Amino acid sequence: MRPEDLELLLTRTMPYGKYKGRAIADLPGQYLGWFAREGFPAGEIGRLLALMHEIDHNGLGALLEPLRRKLQQSQSSEKR
Q1: Helix crossing, 3-11 with 65-79: angle to 10°?
Q2: Which Pfam families match (predicted)?
Q3: N or C: which end of the chain has fewer CB within 10 A?
């Protein structure tokens, strides 16, 4: 894992499927679990899905909250 991967979880969206367009960090746990059982796709999306599954499975979602707040603040200041 690279440190910037945590920010990517909040900014990359699911490119296909039932949750297309939803941020990786906002995907439901059962969906991430399905990928863990069936196999993660290749490439960056698969790597991020696997990381988010580990975070979700281990109850570490709170790790993303400071980054989420930071991104929301920067987005709201850009709109001004």
Answers
A1: 60
A2: QSregVF_b
A3: C
CB contact at 8 A, 24 and 13: yes
Overall size of the chain counted in residues: 80
Tokens of 13: 């969206």
- Asked whether 32 and 56 are in contact (CB, 8 A), the reply is yes
Burial (0-12, 13-18, 19+ Cβ within 10 Å), 49:
buried
Question: What is the model's pTM?
Answer: 0.89
Query: Token pair for residue 48?
Result: 């991020």
What residue spans define the domains of the chain? 3-79
